[in-house]
Amino acid sequence: MTPLGAVVRGLIAGTVGTMAMDALLYAEYRHGGGKTEFGRWEFSSDIESWEQAPAPAQVGKRLFEDLFGRQLPNGRAALVNNLTHWAFGIANGAAYGVVAGSAPKPRVWYGAPFGASVWGGGYVVLPAANLYQPIWNYSPTVLAKDLGAHLVYGLTTAAAFRLTSFVGRSR
């Protein structure tokens, strides 16, 4: 596999993994009594200000404002949340593609340590950026739910990466 092929396959796989993670999180939201329909939930339509915005939006806001030296208005919080969330999931898929593409035969189980490392990385980077509390301030239930979502992301990304190896092959 070429490095470019590994990156492209990783981008596709990261997209599929992000979709799977969002499907799980939405199912959990609905199971917990959430009423918002999927489209509004997925596109963060109820976020109207930066004070309401979750970590992905805050990261995107900081990156944009630091890079361009311009303030983002409250009306951009939902958009920035989605762009950052999806870009992060897809970009991590590309990184996975480079690593897995270097292996003689990428395995789906590689997705478990990959997903766990993405999860753990968030609990290092986001507290350092003052966007999360330190990991020990979260309950085991919250951490387990978040880890579970990231394992779904990682395993689905790995499975999609593996499946893309069969696309375009002649028999």
From TrEMBL:
<keyword id="KW-1133">Transmembrane helix</keyword>
<dbReference type="Pfam" id="PF07274">
    <property type="entry name" value="DUF1440"/>
</dbReference>
<dbReference type="InterPro" id="IPR009898">
    <property type="entry name" value="DUF1440"/>
</dbReference>
<keyword id="KW-0472">Membrane</keyword>
<keyword id="KW-0812">Transmembrane</keyword>
<protein>
    <submittedName>
        <fullName>Uncharacterized protein DUF1440</fullName>
    </submittedName>
</protein>
<feature type="transmembrane region" description="Helical">
    <location>
        <begin position="6"/>
        <end position="27"/>
    </location>
</feature>
